[in-house]
Design goal:
heterodimer; A: alpha/beta; Rossmann fold; 7-stranded parallel beta sheet; 5-stranded parallel beta sheet; 8 helices; 29% strand; B: alpha/beta; 9-stranded mixed beta sheet; two-stranded antiparallel ribbon; 13 strands; 27% helix; globular
């Protein structure tokens, strides 16, 4: 029997939904190792987070709530997580694979002498523990095994359904931890503000590519489309690199965000390997591009060879009417 | 000041990656290797910082003699010298690579250790962070802007919600994101000069490393299931009809 610890991700006292993907993986591993799981959350003013974590079947919710943790920094958070591992007795440590998990968990792995599986997309079949993870921009799926007593994992949120509440309650316990400050200090955030759903959490994502010519045109075309579908807006790397009006955190791709929404509409996107890596597991993919040979059409369920500047406004108008 | 830059060779990122027929490994028959794009961003930034701060830029790579081709390219960009640790680069995991680089850092005592945020073959995004922990250094990962002054690096990082700026005391680890800079092309005179720059070869025994057991081991490789072929529609109306009746997303 082995215990699992899920590291919750939160921002400004709000639980990030990606945490529930990590809980799903925890439950899948629990089905094989059977020791139950705890959740740890670190930050400041976390009562909203601990409330949101109730009912998922964790034995305990460990909480490190202090001014020292108000802004994430790798060294103190890694120490706190290691303290949570010791308190929980966990052999498996799982965080969602976003910039938080990817930044902090390798340090935790090094502290624990543990092998780390980055971007786990699923477990291998069979009784032995094998982890599937993408390589080469997702063109290869590797199955890896971990040879150390403890295992650290980041779970790719797009590949795991969010855990559902199963009832019951988890004991909330304060974690005794007072890490050294470390060599970093927080200066400031510049977070993108948007009324739209978050890219990694949305059911529908519409993405614009370089074919939209410039930033002004990008927003002119994509905003009405996103409004019509109630969608999040993404972009290719070419767009975020070349259009100053499109922020970098909108990039979908191998080195940006990986999404798998119910519907992904790629507008004027050519379909480079690196972009496909970020969206090819979407349930339904639509491509609109005036170049019928664009590689994007190879992954699209429905392809419309048309000028995006004409087709997208038409699509947006008709869908908006249909949905209202 | 000294900046140590980790530099990895990878299979050309635009190549079509295939498995051998028996699926035991990637088919490297006709592949070309290039420097990992993120490592080039790291090296470019190191060279820019070095010119402002009169620093030495040293490249470290792990691999056999074949990897020297990419190292020479890095020397041509402007690094002063290179270190190659003679280990088969197909027998590494992130942790072993990190332990090796940390050991080199202990010998070299750099003020900044620069990495690419991830290698586009393994896509692990771990080595920089592991090295930072092994050395007890602060880290600033996924950097899109770096300014070095007064014994600190002020780094703007690309995070999920936007940008975050932190300051890390030197010595530190920084990992480069794509938008940090545009790596320069080496000019012919620099390529010629690079031929004379030193590439020192080290063995693991020189670094006091005897444990090469992998913590994470690849046991199988497969290509992901291909999507079912799609259809072309000839109008927006036809698309909407498909989304309603077939895909049922409307």
């Amino acid at each position: 029997m082995a215990k699992i610890l899920v590291v919750a991700e939160q921002q400004a006292g709000q639980l990030k939904k990606a945490t529930l993907a990590a809980v799903t993986l925890a439950k899948q591993i629990n089905a094989k190792v059977g020791g139950g799981f705890d959740i740890v959350t670190i930050g400041k003013s976390l009562s909203g987070v601990t409330d949101a974590l109730q009912g998922y079947g964790a034995e305990a919710i460990l909480i490190a709530d202090a001014a020292a943790f108000e802004n994430y920094l790798a060294q103190p958070y890694a120490e706190a997580i290691a303290d949570a591992v010791a308190k929980s007795g966990a052999d498996f440590i799982i965080a969602p694979a976003g910039t938080f998990g990817k930044d902090v968990l390798p340090r935790v792995a090094a502290k624990l002498g543990a092998g780390m599986v980055a971007d786990c997309v699923g477990l291998a079949d069979g009784s032995a523990l094998g982890y599937k993870r993408p390589m080469y921009a997702g063109n290869i799926i590797a199955t890896v095994k971990v040879n150390t007593a403890k295992t650290v994992i980041t779970a790719r949120p797009a590949e795991f359904d969010s855990a559902e509440k199963t009832g019951g309650s988890s004991a909330v316990t304060a974690l005794q931890t007072s890490p050294a400050a470390g060599g970093a200090r927080f200066v400031e955030y510049q977070l993108t503000e948007s009324e739209r759903p978050e890219l990694t959490e949305a059911d529908i994502v519409v993405s614009g590519g370089r074919g939209l010519k410039d930033g002004d045109n990008f927003w002119k075309v994509m905003n009405p489309l996103a409004d019509a579908f109630g969608a999040a807006i993404g972009a290719t790397r070419a767009v975020v690199d070349s259009f100053p009006e499109v922020p970098n955190d909108m990039q979908v791709g191998q080195t940006g965000k990986v999404v798998a929404p119910k519907l992904y509409i790629a507008v004027a996107v050519s379909g480079a390997i690196q972009h496909l890596a970020g969206m090819k597991n979407s349930k339904t993919i639509v491509a609109i591009n005036k170049d019928g040979d664009a590689p994007i059409f190879q992954v699209a369920d429905y392809g419309l060879v048309a000028d995006a500047f004409k087709a997208v406004p038409e699509l947006a108008t008709k869908v908006k009417a249909a949905r209202s | 000041m000294k900046i140590l830059v980790a530099f990895k060779r990878v299979i050309d990122p635009d190549a079509r990656i295939k498995l051998k027929a028996d699926k035991s490994a990637i088919d490297t028959g006709s592949v070309e290797y290039k420097a990992n794009p993120f490592c080039e961003n790291a090296l470019e930034e190191a060279i820019q910082i070095a010119s402002d701060h009169d620093a030495e830029v040293v490249i470290v790579t792990i691999g056999n003699e074949d990897t020297e081709q990419q190292v020479r390219a890095g020397l041509a960009m402007g690094a002063a010298r290179a270190i190659r640790v003679d280990v088969d680069d197909s027998k590494l995991d992130s942790d072993l690579a990190a332990r090796i680089i940390a050991a080199v850092a202990k010998k070299e005592s750099p003020d900044i250790l620069f990495f690419g945020k991830q290698a586009i073959d393994g896509d692990n995004n771990q080595v920089g962070q592991l090295v930072a922990e092994y050395l007890g250094y602060p880290q600033a990962c996924f950097a899109s802007k770096v300014e070095v002054k007064d014994g600190e690096a002020i780094v703007t990082r690309e995070v999920d919600g936007g940008l975050e700026t932190i300051a890390v005391k030197l010595p530190c680890v920084i990992t480069a994101d794509l938008r940090l800079n545009t790596p320069r092309y080496a000019k012919l005179p620099d390529i010629m000069k690079a031929r004379k720059k030193a590439i020192d070869e080290l063995e693991l025994s020189d670094l006091g490393i005897s444990d090469t057991a992998l913590k994470v081991e690849v046991v199988a490789l497969e290509e992901p299931p291909k999507r079912k072929a799609g259809v072309k529609v000839d109008s927006v109306d036809a698309l909407i009809a498909k989304l309603k009746t077939e895909a049922r997303v409307l």
